[in-house]
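Could you show me just one protein sequence together with its fold in token form as a worked example?
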Amino acid sequence: MFELVSFLVMFYLGMKTFFFNKKHILMMLLSLEMLSLLIMSMIIFILSIYNYDSMMIVYFIIILVCEAVIGLVLLTLIVRSHGSDYIKSFSMLLC
């Protein structure tokens, strides 16, 4: 029961960080990574309860790594083209 409450608190904090820190793209990416790691830990917890195969965890970790790489590549391209990662410093219509 304690694990479920801690997962819900972490999910709330991750969503709060994502919605209220919209100044930098890096902070938004970090909060999305926190939510992804939370989902992965919830899957590990559920699979350990029911004694399922752990190959699903490996696939999910691969998807998380690909997501992080794509986010960092996009962040690098935005910083190189616009000079900073402030959201208000550029318009998405111009990209």
